Amino acid sequence: MRQLVIDTATEALSVALFTDGELTDFHHEIAGRGHAEKLIPIIAKMDNGGRADSIIVDSGPGSFTGVRVGLAAARALAYGWNVPLQGYDSLTLLAAMARASVDGTVTDPASELAVAITGGHGELFWRLFDPDTLAPQMELRSTPISLLAEELKTPVVYGSGAAALIDARGYGRAVPLHPDARHVPLMPKDALRDDMAPIYGRGADAVPLAARKG
Length: 214
Known about the structure:
The protein has helices at residues 35-44, 64-81, 90-99, 145-151, 162-169; strands spanning 2-7, 12-19, 22-30, 54-58, 85-88, 113-118, 123-129, 141-144, 156-158, 173-175. By secondary structure, it is α/β, with parallel strands linked by helices. Strand 9 (156-158), helix 5 (162-169) and strand 10 (173-175) form a beta-alpha-beta unit.
């Protein structure tokens, strides 16, 4: 049984191929841009063209373009190969990676696990998780860094937005992390979902002409 994992929702371009639960091939880079041009050639270079019995994809939050690129590729491959497709959210993967960063546990098991990633227009996508179960403790939010610096008091923050938040706050510890497809098995099984709607985390930047005033 082979499983292909695609993660392009953030600055990371990450693809992993598992065979019977074992990692057999992967590509991971902090690409920033160019996901659309790079993704399919990367998959094509994998064993047997990355052909798998199922596909899992990061459906957000992250950049609008990155989320769309990953979902479009995953849907096309799932259709072409006639295999099932499931999605997960980037913040849950990062929470799972954070929990496993110190011998399988977070530094303080009694604290909330805070994850923040780069959003748009000076905002961060963020969420708090239970460090034992990884159950989300709140709804996903997108908040300006200056406001989040006043609101979020958790001493350790994980994710690509952690450093900016800690700098703005003036205290605490930032642990930079980007979603890595190799670590999807760290997530709880119920983190995978069949609903493939993209998780953008905030409204579109562009406003339809009909909705503009004046």
